[in-house]
Write the structure tokens for this entry.
Amino acid sequence: MPYKTFGFTPDQVLMRDSILKLMRDVLPERKLTELEAQAAYPLEAHQAMAAAGWLGLGLDEAWGGTRATQKDLAVFIEATSYHHCAVTSVYMTNVIYGGMYIQGIGSPEQQQRFLPALIQGKLKMAVAYSETQSGSDLAGIRTRAVREGDDYLITGQKVYITNAHVADHLIVVAKTSPEGGHKGMSLFIVDTKSPGLEIRPMNPMGRRMTLPNEVYFDNVRVPANCLLGGENQGWRKVMRGLNLERVLLAAASAGQCMKMVQVARDWAKERVAFGKRITEFQAISHKLADMQMLAETSRLHAYAAADLLDAGHDAVLETSMAKVVGSENCVKCADLGMQIMGGAGYMDGPMSRAYRDVRVGPIGGGSSEIMRNVIAKSMGV
Ligand SMILES: Cc1cc2nc3c(=O)[nH]c(=O)nc-3n(C[C@H](O)[C@H](O)[C@H](O)COP(=O)(O)OP(=O)(O)OC[C@H]3O[C@@H](n4cnc5c(N)ncnc54)[C@H](O)[C@@H]3O)c2cc1C
């Protein structure tokens, strides 16, 4: 039992145990090290998740999916992240960022075309919002989509787009009206084989199995039936998904924290210095206690926010807090874990990998600063 399942339903416990077992079989430590060194996408894990039905979790039964509560999704994501954040990234980019948008705002034709194939692992998706000039300030994007007959022509540049290099389709946000701010934004489903579209993988500090990419659009022709959710409706649609995104990023952080606690504790219990196990030094046991508290706090925030969403609350305050607490606790846990393990932590392995992987948490998906702005606003200040 890697971590406690208090408050989980029997089905949620089963779900957690099943995905953990599947990933231990398909993506063992040896394979993780190999793929990480090659910066290779975990395709086998993607396909195994599809074959076991996990890529339908949260999507409608009509497309071959399984309906899920927000808590179910949080339980699932905590488990995938406990195994490795690359597994979470596979699920998030395809199902949460790709599938859920198409399910939520896509036309029946778009749903029929994309969702069964996505659930079966036959197509991969990624989401392209960020640009060099506008990350946090999404309303400032410059990529334009101009209507021409039955098509739109997209021109612009995106950056940091996770998994775009392996994706068959991108969900792209572009300006369709010269109106300022968020008013003229629209979403498109863009085939990555389209002429004029170029994708260049980037060289990140961590998470190297699920690379970020630069994406260039030079008059990319997109049929009008690939407009997702109506012209100039993009902003409202993006905002609608933020609570779920934040709660799942919080659950992901909880899983990563729990894994680091386990790695550091197991190693420290075996390590001997000055004739004693290092856990007998209070300086070490207190660091482990701090890691445990940071991890448990992340879990409590994530699951409380998920419960509120399931109860129908617009829990902006709670999902934002959960995102900050989880991602920042992860960074603290990585630092403590590294210190506990000394040189062994610094060398290639689960702790040094986690140390590099978790640092993006307070940056991506709404930075800690932006989240604190949202929290303060929710407090009426
Ligand atoms: C590994 C990785 C993967 C990513 N994957 C994707 C993806 O798949 N798709 C996608 O679209 N994007 C992706 N992103 C982009 C990510 O969402 C942005 O990096 C994030 O939104 C921050 O934008 P920025 O990097 O441009 O920083 P900036 O917005 O330039 O911010 C720089 C600093 O200023 C602070 N700041 C900015 N505005 C304010 C403010 N109003 N108040 C206080 N502080 C502020 C920020 O918090 C930050 O500390 C990814 C990024 C990374 C690093």
In short: The domain at 241-378 is CATH 1.20.140.10 (Butyryl-CoA Dehydrogenase, subunit A; domain 3). The chain has a mean pLDDT of 96. The radius of gyration is 21 Å.
